Amino acid sequence: MLNRRIFATIAGLAALPIAIFIVTELLTPNHPVFVGVLATQAVYMFFLSSLVAAVIPFLLRFRLTTVKRNSEQVLSDLSYRLRISRFHVSRKPGQLIIVTSSIAAIKVKAKKTSEGTILAYQSYATPSGWSIILILIIITYTIPVALAISLLILYKSSTFASNRITPRLSQLPIPTLQKVEKDSRGMLIEGLSEGRRLSAEAYEAARSIYQDRILIIIIMGFAIFLAVLFLVGLYFPQDADIEAREYLLLVVGLASAVAYVIVTWRILASKTAPVLVELRSWKERLDRALSREIASEDPPYEEPSSFELMADSAKEVPKWMKIRRKAGMFRQPLTWLAIVFFAYIAIGLAISTVMNLDNEPSLAPWSAAGSMLFACLSLSTYLTWKRSQREEFDATAEEWARRHEKLMADMEDYLGSV
Amino acid sequence: MVDLPPLERPDLYIVARLLERLWRVEEPMLKTRLQIASRVNYDVFRRYVSWMSDRGLIVFDNCDDGHERIRLTPKGEEAYRKLVQWINEMIQESKSR
Question: What is the fold of B12-96?
């Protein structure tokens, strides 16, 4: 059930850009500078308020309930119950992040008070969700679509909170005999669930990277189309028939762009497909094993034991973390925005250079130099980010592999000594 | 029956596989069924069960029906629990990264 406060928030945020558009349109006379360039100030305000309204759902916090128990224990019980119900749950101090769909997630935060623990939730998005929202914002004209997605995520968070979280919070605490000595079944469920979460997140991240790259290929294809139109147009005999000239330019431009998109897409797909298949296979194997453990069923003889699956998945963890980090550029929005911003200015100045060659030749070297400077800034920011990611990953992977090897050797020694 | 040389360093995965299967059934298991579950050939299987029996992880039960069955001892159960605990702890550590 959607409570009144959420309904009012969603309705208010959806109506905000329209209201601001109408008010601005009524109160502000059209400024001559904007006429014919950005249409009116009202349109500009509409997009700006849509952007603000698209961000607000991720900042709002809604109270769930207050429970008279320790905050970490409440989160631990909730996390266990949600994992048993096969949700992806990540736990951080004082909060849980639960993935509710391919784009939506929810943060549950616990705060200690004198009355007990206050639980609240906040909308959140998966890496795919963040990618979609940011791309829609960058395109600018699609900001209202980003707003619609943000509101959809808020709606999903709210229904998830009332249908899935609140009932679980009212259940009795889990008797923790595991605290003294965890039983094997409980630990198998815990380990398989975490392995499943990591593999599923890596799979989602790999898909998100693939989709982002497809988008880049399409944008590059469009850029190639424009570049071919421009360059072929420059060298095309000026005395040729105009209609034939336009038709030929269009065909050549389109053919070049389509050929580029098809070839690069196929190369990308052939590189990505094996990774996606492997990740999906891990996700499904861990999923099946987890379902079996929850139902206390035995695995078929031909399938690996749950222990083997956990040991093998532990070996895969650095690879999964690397994929998640690769897709995590959107988790560092400032770096990403700086790269895009510099590249945007570089492209703008490059276009100015071409235009200046005809109109103001004396300005062309300056705009060309500016374009080069911003292109270098964009590239160096990207390369620095990439190098730091790689160094961090290499260190983690090396340490993890060493620990995994040592653990296996310790286990063998333990068995040899019993 | 030919005596097979004892195991020097057993494969962790095979031992864990046998322990897990016996832990799951909770009752003595037919030797032939356990061999199928172990996914190794009969000679290798014999060497493993002998090795595990020497360490008190399993015991052989001769049943009235003439079939030999294998059962997990409390020590075997504890050994399996420890293996699961260690690997689980390593997986849980990924949360902090």
Answer: Arc Repressor Mutant, subunit A (1.10.10)
